[in-house]
């Protein structure tokens, strides 16, 4: 028997004797899975997480130093291999997950490159400071308030509902939350005027519905 095969079998026996007995019941099938830790099908995807870690580290690099071709290749590879992982035998969910994140990293970097090379240069001068603002579109500070406008839209839609079907507790909570978060938006760093505006309208929506409920009752 070749040395590496002997080492592999020895490690598997040690794992079966030491690790397997202490595994919780739900994890034991994974240990003996055809793509489990005792096979190359487990370790090959594991080492590929290095690509994801490298991609995350490159988020700190300026976009002008990123390779568009390399990240396009990573995106395409990640996408195709995510699908590939579900049609091979044995199916390999670990391989699918790592390739999905490889694809996401590549797409993110391509977006940064496109912004640097295409979008940013054509922005009017007055819009560039907004784009680069600490709470601008390149940050979660922009997108979190944006999604919160769904509460305002829902509140406007509820204006068509009869007041007896409205929840006073829910609308009181929305009014209070909106009021406090409007103030909160001005004291956090960075200040977030988008967050302030959406919470102001959340407050107005809640107060408006409370008035309708009070008038009905």
From TrEMBL:
In the UniProt record, does the keyword Lyase occur?
Answer: no
Q: Where in the cell is it found?
A: Mitochondrion inner membrane
Task: Identify the domain of life.
Answer: Eukaryota
Q: Would the keyword RNA-binding be found if you checked this record's keyword annotation?
A: no
> Would you kindly state one Gene Ontology biological process term found in this protein's UniProt entry?
pyruvate import into mitochondria
Membrane topology term reads: Multi-pass membrane protein
**InterPro entries annotated for this entry?**
MPC
The entry's protein name is Mitochondrial pyruvate carrier
Origin organism is Nippostrongylus brasiliensis
